[in-house]
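Notes from hallway chat w/ T.B., transcribed later so I don't forget. T.B. wanted the structure written out for a chain they're using in a teaching module, and asked if we could keep both sequence and structure tokens in one place. Agreed to drop them here.
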Amino acid sequence: MMQTHPETAVLGRVAFFGHDRIEPTIRKRVGAIRESGWSVVEYMFVRARTGLADPARTSDTVSLGQTVDRHYGRRLPVLALGIVRALTRWRDLRAADVVYVRNLDMALVAWASARLAGSRAPLVYEVLDIQRLMVRRDRVGRIARAVERWILRRSALLVVSAPDFVTRYFEPVQGFSGPWHLLENKVMAHRLAEVAHRLDRGRVAGPPWVIGWFGTLRCRRSLTMLAAIARALDNSVRIVIAGRLSEEDIDPEVFAATLSRHPNMTFRGPYANPGELPDIYGGVHFSWAVDYLDDGLNSDWLLPNRLYEGGLCGALTLARAETATGRYAEAEGVGWAFPEPLEDSVIAFLRTLDGATYAQRQNGLLACETSKFVDDHGMRDLLARIA
């Protein structure tokens, strides 16, 4: 059970249900809640990952089992078993002041577990991506949307990482008109001390131009485009890739073969976030924030982590025009957005880019307040709103 001692009195108690306890954004959220003065009991599934450190389990960690990416049918029995496992800590569930969930399947597990435990704590439903399942036009998609509408009616607050998720999906598609809260994918302030002393945001403005593609690597089209850019510009450009390769989306053999054909493309492998952000971003001029995984849908609506991480570390964003990321980069002066055909536009841009033009835009980035990229109190405001 959650223990509260006088010397460590907390503002409230959160039961956090997550799909993958070692996934970086899950760790970021849990850390932000604790930093805001609330205690957390983590009800967590886990997924098989390579290159990600498994944080130490504590007495406030409840293991719900192992699930898999995207294979929704295979998840159902595991999710049902997760409810049973969550109820082994039913007293903590009943004592929680807020039930915080990531994603629809976790919302179902959390709602059922909390109600069976006798909890009446408000449910906070966080969505960081509109999964392709939710926009399918077939019977499966209609069922998924109906389930989500059911959850939305039982949620005290919807949390999103980009406004377009509400204006392009939740309002027009789901008919949602309830309260929502914007919690952008910024670098969390409580982790910034780990890297602040190593941030060197200045850049030598000149070729070879270095493009960094970092994070979870899912977009096959980005890999193809970056290879075309590397081939066309040869020694005047370098492509640095780092993070976790999503093997469901990009065949590892195709990835390796692409790198082997282009000596100016390198893969650094997984990295610690935020500990290694200065290392990976510090060596690049540009952060590649292009995504086609769900073209016309989620890819057009999201504001990704790399937009804020790159800005904090001094790397300018390369994005697609007519997307939320592209509009943000141009409006805030933190990068460039390019029209289709994208690879032709980027190649032409880099061929004619001079140091003065780059330095001018980079100076604008350096003039931005760090609050544009760092979240000082977003979670605190969110929990205060619920409390």
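Follow-up for T.B.: Residues 4 and 75 are 35 Å apart (CA to CA). Might be a good example for the class.
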